[in-house]
Design a protein that fits this description.
Chain A is α/β, with parallel strands linked by helices. Chain A is built from 11 helices and 14 strands. Chain B is mostly helical. The chains are: A alpha/beta, B mainly alpha.
Chain lengths: ~325, ~260
Amino acid sequence: MSRPVAIEVSHLGKTYDKVRAVDDLSFQVYTGEIFGLLGPNGAGKSTTLRILITLLTPTSGSARIFGLDSVKDADRVRQTIGYVPQERAIDRFLTGREHLELLADLYHLSAEDAATRIPQLLKLVELEQQADRPAKTYSGGMKRKLDIACGLLPDPNILFLDEPTLGLDVQSRLRIWDHVRAMRERGITVVMTTNYLDEADQLCDRIAIIDGGRIKALGAPNELKAGLGGDLVSLTVREEDRVEKLAAAVRDLPAIRAVTTRPNGLDIRVDSPEKALPAILEAANRLTCQLEFIDYHRPRLDDVFIAHTGRSIKDDQPKTEDS
Amino acid sequence: MKEYWQEIRALTMRWVRRLSREKFSMLFTLVQPMLFWLIFFGNLFQRAADLQVTQSASYISFLTAGVVVMTVLNNGLAGGVDLLFDKENGFLERLMSTPIHRTSVILSRFIFVTTITSLQVLVILAVAWLFGVQPVTGLAGVATILLIGMMFGVGLTAISMAMAFSVKSHGDFFSVLGFLSLPMIFLSSALVPLSAMPGWMGFLAQFNPMTWAIDAVRPLILQGWAEALPHVGMVIGVMVLFDALCLYGGARAFRRAIG
């Protein structure tokens, strides 16, 4: 399957003060997809994004956007992309309309083009009513919508979103997701960073899990989850000395893929839960092994994240700002 | 070229719009130097100041040149503040991700700061005129004063922008600003002629570009072209050098920050 490539990143590296923020990153983004860079704060996803939008020069490797080099052809890259920075990149004193007018001039739109496009965009993000109020009166969700309208103003082929729903309430979040999906319908390639697992899972067509400046996993969320192999059954055992014995018994049962032991229980990957679960419970009964807790779930994206990075996305987030 | 002008005009208009939305801030920006320095300070020291020492008809007439240059100093040093906030809240990134010429943002700031400062200088001269201070060199003298102010202002704004792009937080910026501004005023001929200062202060004040600017502006107001011209020629030379140095440093800081 070969799909047209919008972005080609190869062996990208960026070092700040001897710290490797991004380390030998390679991936492709296909045209027309929503591609997510998922990782905890400080993982290197914003650095990657900033290189792609030509604001940072890579220390090594290269990034090509529709065949244009992010450094050598920076000016032409800037003409084909739209960028929605993290929250607050808004001038409090300007109205929504004035933001778009300013950007229209920076993208060198003619007065006529600006006059037709700006009302369209305001309508698209449902900001017509508030267009002539200063942005300081906007709610978080409205600011975000204005951000997105600003990103769409140049009619970009690729739109970059940096943490599009950070700090938003649930309602606004779902709205923004709808807007992002609508962009894909219009044929725009979307590249976004996020540290929300559910956002990556539900919104993105493909994701790259980034941790410590490196790609740990790459693919569609469903593929990544399926790649873990089977659903997960976790048992917590009351008498810890029985764990090994139970593990040995479970391993021989049908529909079992893999068994790993914890000090107080077992994690079991199963193929078909309706066969495996009764058998597991029976084995526990037979060995008079009392179960304190049973947890069963399909693989979630956090399981994928843990499997590839060895930790949960919420663990040990560095206190420094994402760079 | 047409596109470049479109960018600069739009970015400059943004600064104008911001200022017009901050009515109070605008009022205080305009009124502060003449109110505090010219009217209060000037009248306060009217009798305390020895007119033999200041060599002028009144202390206010002596002080006018100082207040003009002080205004240029303060506006120039604060000229980078808005860019600092743009840098901190990500607006600058948004601007830089558009296909604009990299210098447009900076140039728009120079245009804006220079224009506002020139307007203020005119207001100060008008207020001084109400207190009986009439520049003896007339309108041509006023134009020359504006020119000197602009040249000095460009260098100062460049310093301010360089700082804005280099500092880690705006706290640092304002600390440095506060630390720079008053000593620059005290160690210059703004309030007292060099000859009346304690030796060491007078010595240091000689190297202050503010002193040079004031020494050119003051004879334009008080004495006449004959006394002013040598100073004006001198200060223009010095300011060209000063601006070149500041712009070079500013450009380097900008390139480091923006890439």
